[in-house]
Amino acid sequence: MKNRQPGFIRRLLSYTLLLLNIGSVIWLGLCAYAATTSPVEVKHIALLTLTTPFAVLANVFFVFIWLFTSKKLRSLLSAVVLVVCYKLIFTIFGFNYGNNDMGKSPDRIRIMTWNVHGMGIFKVPRDKVFEKEILNYLKANDADIMCLPEYSVPKTDPLKPYGKKIISDGKYVDYRFHYDNTLGTTIFLGTAAYSRYPFHNYVAHQLAEYTFLLQGDVALPGGDTVRMFFVHLSTFGLSDDEKAYIEYVKQNSSALANSLGLTRSFVWKFNYAFVKRAEEADKTAAIIAQSPYPVIVCGDFNDLPGSYTYTKIRGTLNDAFVDKGRLFGRTYSQILPTLRIDHIFYDPTVLKIVGLECPHTELSDHRPVIANFEIIRKAGK
Question: Which fold does the domain 108-375 belong to in CATH?
Fold first, then answer.
């Protein structure tokens, strides 16, 4: 009996790994399904998109595990699903380790999207030094076109308290702002767009009660006219206390079992937000499809690559991160290192990306996405 025990344990371990491997294959398959399936149609499916990077890593793990056993053929289980889902994988992970050129020149354009978290408005009491640091940061990044979700202005004047300074520092010739919410009785929060090229045919499309898609046409130097879209889609609606709780659970996993009611609240909020964003994404995609010009879309989508929202809005456009980014490209500094929820999509027939940065900063809970493009000049221009 003792001689049989080691063999039994090995077989048990082998079959346990096989079952776990099959589970990971199904997991990744469902994540791929969630990327193109609206949460309006299939309830709770969007929750899987939060786990896609981990499903990919689990299958990579099993490929290597089986290669070091006598059951090497079992590595094909995960290898096949990874190959089938390669487009999803290259959407989530950046594998670009070549030249990253952020240099400026007349035939280039730099586009930046950055959720500025109210420009310091949430600091109490007001911290003028902090606000000045934000303005200096915007100036230093020297973007030709900026999309700034969660930008704050007084209801009486959208040029105060920062607009005139940003316009002067950046030599911007056009500035647009549209509120999507209020903070108290005197402050608007919304999306701001600054540009060194005039916006033509400016429109603010209403996607939902508190969500707008800003549109403006820009004539690129020596190139085409492009239609710019700036957006800040619905958030998950988590309070600061709830975010702090998630951070606490990350350090104390036993706390999760003691707070099932709060966990159910998270699931409900997440599902509600996924559905809202899916509806906003459908409307956004329909508006983009009507453009007579090549398109650039940027902003805070509040959704991950591999989500329905991301897939629907991106459509046939290129993702600046996919073309030039590395690893996860995290843009939200809390909760998980996989949260890339701010995006820049572009038409590769008019722009060629040469550089991308997503630097960490303590000035907001988001990191900026800064893309440097060469303008593709048309014959005769």
Answer: Deoxyribonuclease I; Chain A (3.60.10)
